[in-house]
Fold this sequence. Notes:
The chain is of the alpha/beta class. The protein has helices at about 15-20, 40-45, 60-65, 65-70, 85-90, 110, 135-145, 145-155, 160-170, 180-190, 200-210, 215-230, 240-255, 290-295, and strands at about 30, 50-55, 75-80, 95-105, 230-240, 300-305.
Amino acid sequence: MTAGIADSRHEPVLLDEVIAALAIEPGEIHVDATYGAGGYARAMLACGATVYAFDRDPDAIAEGAVHAESAGDALHLVPERFSRMREALAERDVDAVDGVTFDIGVSSMQLDRAERGFSFQGDGPLDMRMDQAGESAAEFLETVDETMLADIIFALGEEHRSRRIARAIVAARPIASTGELAAIVRKAVGHRPGAPKDPATRTFQAIRIHLNRELDELRDGLVAAEHVLAAGGRLAVVTFHSLEDRIVKRFLRERSGSGPGGSRHLPETAQDDRPPTFDKPAKPVRAGQAELARNPRARSATLRTARRTDAGAWPQERSESQ
């Protein structure tokens, strides 16, 4: 079977909770910023929404063609990074939307395909490119400076053994496959077979995030959502690790004016005098036991949601680097 929109292995995480937070009314316009296998978009359509579904991955757009054809004018596939949401919607004569949903990070479809090079569960070419263009992970590792690589692994993989790993990678290059890279990392840190977490996981995460500029994309995507959401529009963001979640949490605190106050030990935090563009965010939501039992990917997921106010969007500031 072709891994596509009907593949049950690609169950969207926290689907019921996301749809409940979006509170979709028939006729509304919603953005699925990370189309993937189409799970969120399908649920939005079932609620009567018109959906603009973004994905930077050509495979996701190609495999979504059948879905789009069956949905008619209700589903519009947009082959763009979600950081270009504002411009892409304007090009399609859409000025404002009622909801924007993000499912951040690598998709199950990408992880499951060894030829995409995102995972070491199956050996494949060391690629990791979400949009299948530009520099591959193998090409990046061939030329990157050891110190820079160590910094990337430390900051984006939260890996305290980053210096040792970077030294081993540089000494072993060229590296062509995911299996080779995983073996190099395991040897560098003295991996014991059967340990609960493979030590290569953090290094793969760091290289993937850097290569695809994922954190900058998230920052810019949140700002783009702020610009396109109508007053009363709903924002829903599902993240899978602390780096992403911190960005979303900080953005919503800042834009809602609900940042932490002072204490007897710390001075009061300076408050921005611009009017809040979001109401106070809802409490974060995590998967329940039933979903965890059927969908292990939900284990690290966090959903944050907020409703747009009628205040004008803050000036857009593009990210330049991670």
